[in-house]
Design a protein that fits this description.
The chain has about 230 residues and is an alpha+beta fold. The protein has five helices and eight strands. It has helices at about 5-20, 25-30, 65-85, 130-140, 155-180; strands spanning about 35-50, 50-65, 95-105, 110-125, 145-150, 185-195, 195-200, 220-234. The strands form two sheets. Strands 1, 6, 7 and 8 form a four-stranded antiparallel beta sheet that branches. The radius of gyration is 34 Å and the shape is elongated. The two termini are about 55 Å apart.
């Protein structure tokens, strides 16, 4: 039996221990990551009065033939569009939603001509003008309207503010939990952003434009952000 000298055996063991650390992220980059951490969620909202609006206006026409119904209805739709442009709506803020022609039936189930329908979506840059523009569309021949819907032109900026507030809330909650655990809050290890939400408006008093007979109340909207943050503890 071969006898290995004690000194040689100690050197071999030392080399094996050194090689065992090669390729491990913790040994290659220093100390191992802190295993202690805390994960919290923060939610915040930014409230604002909508400054933009949208509504649709439509016209319909009955005629004996599909062609006649469509032609007559096109004239009505053109009158509505001309009135909206004359009232100050930019061409880019007008979008045709649908143009349809369908058979019309009498009470006995027999075909009795055709009905053509056209509707246009109107983007109102200034919410205070919404009522006046609805009136203009109806005065020009629109027989149906839908809306309005409300939005903010700077919603992205409002959401970024909500994100900052949500992160601040998460940090405060994490610091509180760390203090209760007798630890100190360390660097951020992970951040997850939840989908942005826009809560529907709720009533908020606002006088309609002086020249509008149709009152439009935009209410207020909440732009909400939620983040989940993991902090290391020391």
């Amino acid at each position: 039996m071969r006898i290995v000298p004690l000194a040689a055996l100690a050197a071999a063991l030392a080399a094996a221990v050194a090689l065992a650390g090669v390729g491990r992220p913790d040994s290659a980059h220093g100390a191992a990551p802190n295993a202690r951490s805390v994960t919290v969620s923060g939610t915040a909202s930014v409230q604002a009065v909508p400054n933009e609006a949208g509504f649709s206006a439509g016209v319909s026409t009955d005629a004996a033939t599909a062609r006649a119904a469509l032609a007559a209805n096109a004239t009505k739709a053109a009158h509505v569009l001309d009135a909206l442009r004359a009232a100050g709506v930019a061409k880019g803020d007008l979008q045709t939603q649908d143009v349809t022609v369908s058979p019309r039936w009498d009470d006995r189930g027999r075909q009795d001509g055709f009905t053509a329908h056209t509707s246009v979506q109107v983007h109102v840059q200034d919410v205070r003008q919404a009522g006046r523009l609805i009136d203009a569309a109806v005065a020009a021949g629109a027989t149906e309207t839908s809306g309005p819907s409300f939005d903010r032109g700077d919603r992205d900026a409002l959401y970024r503010d909500a994100l900052k507030n949500a992160f601040a809330e998460a940090r405060l909650k994490a610091a509180t939990l760390a203090g209760e655990a007798g630890a100190s809050l360390g660097p951020v290890l992970r951040i997850e952003e939840s989908s942005a939400t826009l809560e529907p408006p709720y009533p908020y008093p606002m006088r309609a434009a002086a020249d509008a007979s149709t009152p439009v109340e935009p209410g207020k909207q909440n732009v909400q952000a939620t983040v989940t943050v993991t902090f290391s503890l020391s």
